[in-house]
Amino acid sequence: MPPQTAEGLADALRPLLEAPKRAAVLCDVDGTLAPIAPRADAARVPPEVSRAIAALAPRYGLVGCISGRSALDARRLVGVGGIAYAGMHGAEILQPSESRPAVSPALAEYRDRVRGFAATAWSRVRPLGIRHEDKGPIWALHWRGVANDAAAQTALEEVAREAEAEGLAVHWGRKVLEIRPPVRISKADAVTSLLEGRLAVRAALFGGDDATDLDAFDALDSLVARSRLDAAVKVGVASAEGPEDIVRRADVVVEGPAGFHDVLAALAAA
């Protein structure tokens, strides 16, 4: 699907534009609001994007960001209070009125086990330039920008096999391997959790660029099929590294974070 024209975008967003207070605007952060950076700690959400998100908050029934980062780190990066954040792909839920996220007890139980395995594995692959990110119950190993990309990926494939042999879960993203508890974690659950209790919300949008965002697409499809939502809009943020299914399954396709900013601006016109 080619990138959306302005006219096509307005038509695709009509279910949200017609009744903003009965609509939810949800999105990924890295690669959707913020351009992908060489290091996770170098990512920045452009000020105009933060302003656009803030402008949506009082107009829509729900505005939220669902990220692989911790909920508090996602809020720091986006720089907007008064909206919802789901961190670690849904392992944490930070409601607009709360100051601290709720974490699943099942995930918390695995924190030390994940950290012990991942720290040991990282000490072995660190000479390749692989960096670690401690998210509590999840550890991420990043290899973007290393000197030998192929060697780093091969080493992490071995780490992934070892993790699964130890009874842990793994998940691959854009130049990142996550070591996770063997507990269901997905952006589908995050979407469902954020909409839970908000029965007035009858239409929802989700924008994302990576494989984990396909789970959020699944959730929207399921909620419409069960008549929990009357309409859903899946926005695929196209990129050279993103999975083909992000574009194939999307109702709206935009080019990179700049294209998603156009979606936010169109939503703000409601």
Architecture overview:
This protein is of the alpha/beta class. It has two domains: 6-104 and 185-268, Rossmann fold, CATH 3.40.50; 113-177. The chain is 40% helix and 20% strand. The chain has eleven helices and twelve strands. It has helices spanning 6-12, 14-17, 47-56, 71-78, 105-108, 111-125, 149-165, 187-195, 211-225, 244-248, 256-268, and strands at residues 23-27, 62-66, 84-87, 92-94, 102-103, 131-134, 139-142, 169-173, 176-180, 203-208, 231-238, 252-255. The protein has an eight-stranded mixed beta sheet, sandwiched between helices. It has a four-stranded antiparallel beta sheet with strand order 6-7-9-8, covered by helices on one side. It is globular and about 55 Å long. The two termini are 26 Å apart. The mean pLDDT is 92.
Structure, briefly:
Helix content is 40%, strand content 20%.
State the secondary-structure class: alpha/beta
The pLDDT mean sits at: 92
H/I helix tally = 11
> Helix-strand pattern, N to C?
HHEHEHEEEHHEEHEEHEHEHEH
Radius of gyration, rounded?
18 Å
- The strand count comes to 12
Strand content: 15-25%
Low-confidence stretches: none
Strand order in the sheet with the most strands:
5-4-3-2-1-10-11-12
Intertermini distance:
26 Å
Give the CATH topology of the largest domain: Rossmann fold
What can be said about the biggest beta sheet?
8 strands, mixed
Classified in CATH, the superfamily of the largest domain is HAD superfamily/HAD-like
Name the shape in a single word. Answer: globular
